Amino acid sequence: MSSEEKMKPALLSLVGINPLSGKSVLVTRLCPPKGWTGRLCEVDVNSSRIVGLSQSGCVCVWELGEGGTSRTMEAPEDEDWQLVRWGEGDTLVIGHQNGDVSLRSYSVGRQAEARTDTKTLLL
């Protein structure tokens, strides 16, 4: 890790720990992508990918197997994203302030822009 990378603020640090010896090593630091504002408030893991949601509604997916590269998705102006989780396979489940749930397909190397399905939660 270069001295420049050490100076960047990290949203999340991934640490590997040997349970027998108690020794640990820093595996990677997930730094905020350009355009990220606010604190990290939601995180979920699927295989070698981590998805996070900022207070401002920005969703970011970090690809751990590709050197920690990141891809972001901004909430459309009329939507207020409050929750993000990995669904089955490569589906991102995004919860909205009004109770709607969006399912978005995500594939390695690119993100899908089109919403594939929307459902309303009934309480």
From TrEMBL:
Highest rank taxon of the organism: Eukaryota
Annotated protein name in UniProt: Partner and localiser of BRCA2 WD40 domain-containing protein
Coiled-coil regions listed: none
Entries under InterPro entries matching the protein: PALB2, PALB2_WD40, Quinoprotein_ADH-like_sf, WD40/YVTN_repeat-like_dom_sf
PANTHER family associated with the record: PARTNER AND LOCALIZER OF BRCA2
Partner and localiser of BRCA2 WD40 domain location: 4-102
